[in-house]
Write a structure and sequence with these properties.
About 70% of the residues lie in helices and about 0% in strands. The protein is mainly α. It has one domain: Amino acid/polyamine transporter I. The two termini are about 15 Å apart.
């Protein structure tokens, strides 16, 4: 059936290497910093408090479980990225193995994941930025501080800082990837330094008595927290979106994917263990700055100020990398004819998908400014878990379809490791709420309508046929 037609792998790789495309400017350290930039942000500075309320001091175990689910999927991503160094991440890999309809649906899913992630983090960035301004005695007009209805009993019209940060980072991405990578690397270096400062200072204030009982809500609480804090690891897959802009993708992409995930997993486990060792987990109720709270509780107010700065930089890099990832997925889908061709045009001077970048920045900047985004983590998580499951299945299928294909990096233990990735991801999905499943289903139904109404007929494969 035409809806299951697949793209030729050799043609895909040739298209990615064709002259006049995206500039190849990224190295292995750029990719590791890009991954850390996407991962270390809202998850460590905000979600650790919510996770502690669900798992108690066993939150560190929840992070290990979420990291394992990501690690198995990351090995599968690394094989694909080194074999098919083409923009589009799991969308591109699905198109070559599972067929056009599956590729479209996962691309549609990624647009939701990346878009809502950038909008949600922009709102969090706005809150920290306004807190920083208040420290200098400055304040924006109340009506410009939040989306309509976001603050009960307070009249608000527009979240101006959330929109502005989206537009500033969009401008940076549209000007060039080399410049964006340099700025990202600087911000990530400062962010890691802040997290390490918290670990060094906080370790001295840990009270082991706060870790008792270690697992107050049992294994169910640990798994529920793992399903929630999985959001904290989202981002390493955005590294694969940079495939066409990497100097040596066969070597550097696996290093970037696995390296960034390993660094972040270690940081998360240490931070969550120290944080719950300083403050009894019950005190994180209603707190949106748990890391700062732990330092204030320990009397280290001067370090808490640095943590707030680290949170702002952390969220800035998350928005930057997630916006980048989304534009590359849209670029790849447009190049395949599934979205309007205008979205895959490359700027002659900047060598970036200029139009697509600005469409993403403006649309999701306005969503961040106008829509109260209170509970987004679960909806973003379910889409990502579905993507991770698919890429794991696709690795096995490609091994059977093209055993002759040169693979610079081979996922170890196939099919066991991909199967474990699927098991972990599906297990975490079962702990998400019914409302999340319903919302996800509605989004996928809309995607089916768009596919059969537009994408299927305009597909490059359909035109070729």
């Amino acid at each position: 059936m035409s809806i299951f037609r697949t793209k030729n792998l050799d043609d895909m790789v040739a298209a990615g290497r064709a002259p006049g495309g995206l500039k190849k400017v990224l190295g292995p350290m750029d990719l590791i910093f890009m991954g850390i930039g996407a991962i270390v942000g809202t998850g460590i500075f905000v979600l650790t408090g919510t996770g502690a309320l669900t798992a108690g001091p066993a939150l560190s175990i929840s992070f290990v479980i979420a990291a394992l689910a990501c690690a198995f999927a990351a090995l599968c991503y690394a094989e694909f990225a080194s074999t098919v160094p083409v923009a589009g991440s799991i969308y591109t890999y699905s198109y070559a193995t599972l067929g056009e309809l599956v590729a479209w649906m996962i691309g549609w899913d990624l647009m939701l994941e990346y878009g809502l992630a950038t909008s949600a983090v922009s709102v969090g960035w706005s809150g920290y930025f306004q807190s920083l301004l208040s420290g200098f005695g400055l304040a924006l007009p109340t009506v410009l501080t939040a989306a309509p209805g976001a603050v009960p009993g307070v009249e608000t019209w527009f979240n101006l800082p959330a929109l502005l940060i989206m537009l500033v980072l969009t401008a940076m991405l549209s000007w060039g990837m080399r410049e964006s990578a340099r700025v990202n690397n600087i911000m990530v270096a400062i962010k890691i330094a802040v997290v390490l400062l918290f670990i060094l200072v906080g370790f001295r204030h840990v009270q082991p008595a706060n870790w008792q009982p270690f697992m107050p809500f049992g294994i169910s609480g640990v798994m529920s927290a793992a399903a929630l804090v999985f959001f904290a690891f989202i981002g390493f897959d955005a590294v694969t979106s940079a495939a066409e802009e990497v100097k040596r993708p066969e070597r550097d992409l696996p290093i970037g994917i696995i390296g960034s995930l390993a660094v972040c997993a270690i940081l998360y486990v240490l931070v969550s263990a120290i944080m719950t060792g300083i403050v009894p987990f019950q005190k994180f109720l209603g707190v949106d700055h748990p890391v700062s709270l732990a330092l204030q509780y320990a009397g280290e107010n001067w370090v808490a100020g640095f943590v707030d700065l680290g949170a702002i930089l952390g969220m800035t890099t998350v928005i930057l990398v997630m916006t980048y990832g989304q534009t590359r997925v849209i670029f790849a889908m447009s190049r395949d004819g599934l979205l309007p061709r205008k979205l895959s045009t490359i700027h002659p001077k900047h060598s970036t998908p200029f139009f697509a970048t600005w469409v993403v920045g403006i649309v999701f900047g306005l969503i961040a400014a106008m829509v109260p985004l209170n509970v987004l983590a679960e909806l973003i998580n379910i889409g990502t878990l579905a993507a991770f499951s698919l890429v794991s299945v696709a690795v096995v299928i490609l091994r059977k379809k093209r055993p002759d294909l040169h693979r610079a990096f081979r996922c170890p233990g196939v099919p066991v490791v991909p199967a474990l990735a699927v098991v972990f991801c599906v297990a975490l999905m079962t702990y998400l709420s019914k409302t999340t499943w319903i919302a996800f289903g509605i989004w996928l139904l809309i995607g089916l309508v768009v596919y059969f109404g537009y994408a299927r007929h305009n597909s490059a494969l359909n035109q070729k046929a």
